[in-house]
């Protein structure tokens, strides 16, 4: 397998209290797959993505990319965060060029930056500052910056969560187009069932307390998914059922805890 997540466990210790965040996470992801990680708040979705990025160390277990263990951040993984995290003093072009500064000469880096800015349809904004762009445009710059490093895996942590529905819909379309063009492996964290169905080859549905994999769903609905509303609705109902059961479990645990304390 291309990306192997083997027996990942993560615990946080706060004031001598140990919390199990992730327990026994095992996933095999093929090269070129678009995989969404879906689940309620607190299930460890972002923590798992951070471990794959090399930003967080697991308590136990290992992650292999192309057979090599991930120990720290690397240029083989591009990260797109919830917020664009652009440098406000740099232009759009300079932001995309930034991770290339040690890899290639300035002229070549500029050519690469323009290639990916064209891919995200921002060729006319190369000299703009981030504050002159809308939130959706800033996130597209972030995507172009991550892609400019030509990573093996693109990691996306709820990149469209703060955007309005119209902007999200447009970026869904653009991201799907980019994925088809680049054939990148994408690991995408989301709270949105509809977003995960629209974009993904697979949906990893997670439960919480601790974070576990409830189900690994292979989405067999042909693309574009909007042309198959009945199949989409059926899958939404299935995932809603999984998450409702999980949320009901958490509520019962909280009520039991409150009654005993």
UniProtKB/TrEMBL annotation:
Cross-referenced InterPro entries: AAA+_ATPase, ABC_transporter-like_ATP-bd, ABC_transporter-like_CS, ABC_transporter_ATP-bind, P-loop_NTPase
Quaternary structure (record): The complex is composed of two ATP-binding proteins (OpuCA), two transmembrane proteins (OpuCB and OpuCD) and a solute-binding protein (OpuCC).
Segments forming domain ABC transporter: 3-233
The UniProt record lists the keyword Cell inner membrane: no
PANTHER family tied to this protein: ALIPHATIC SULFONATES IMPORT ATP-BINDING PROTEIN SSUB, TAURINE IMPORT ATP-BINDING PROTEIN-RELATED
MF-aspect GO terms: ABC-type quaternary ammonium compound transporting activity; ATP binding; ATP hydrolysis activity
UniProt superkingdom: Bacteria
Pfam families: ABC_tran
CDD domains hit by this protein: ABC_NrtD_SsuB_transporters (cd03293)
Name of the molecule in the record: Carnitine transport ATP-binding protein OpuCA
């Amino acid at each position: 397998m291309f990306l192997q997540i083997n027996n990942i466990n993560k615990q946080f210790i706060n004031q001598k209290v140990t919390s199990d965040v992730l327990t026994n996470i095992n996933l095999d992801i093929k090269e070129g797959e678009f995989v969404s990680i879906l689940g309620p708040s607190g299930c460890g979705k972002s923590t798992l993505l951070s471990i794959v990025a090399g930003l967080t160390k697991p308590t136990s277990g290992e992650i292999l990319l192309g057979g090599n263990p991930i120990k720290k951040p690397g240029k083989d993984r591009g990260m797109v965060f919830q917020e664009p995290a652009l440098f406000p003093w740099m232009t759009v072009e300079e932001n995309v060029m930034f991770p290339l500064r040690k890899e290639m000469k300035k002229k070549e880096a500029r050519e690469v930056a323009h290639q990916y800015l064209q891919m995200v349809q921002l060729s006319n904004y190369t000299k703009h500052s981030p504050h002159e762009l809308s939130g959706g445009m800033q996130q597209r710059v972030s995507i172009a910056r991550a892609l400019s490093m030509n990573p093996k895996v693109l990691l996306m942590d709820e990149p469209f969560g703060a955007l309005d529905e119209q902007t999200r819909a447009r970026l869904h379309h653009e991201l799907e187009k980019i994925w088809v063009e680049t054939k990148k492996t994408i690991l995408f964290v989301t709270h949105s069932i509809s977003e995960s169905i629209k974009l993904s080859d697979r949906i990893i549905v997670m439960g919480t307390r601790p974070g576990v994999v409830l189900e690994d769903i292979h989405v067999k609905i042909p693309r574009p998914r909007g042309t198959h509303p009945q199949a989409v609705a059926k899958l939404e109902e299935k995932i809603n059922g999984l998450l409702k059961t999980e949320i009901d479990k958490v509520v019962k645990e909280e009520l039991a805890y409150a009654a005993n304390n």
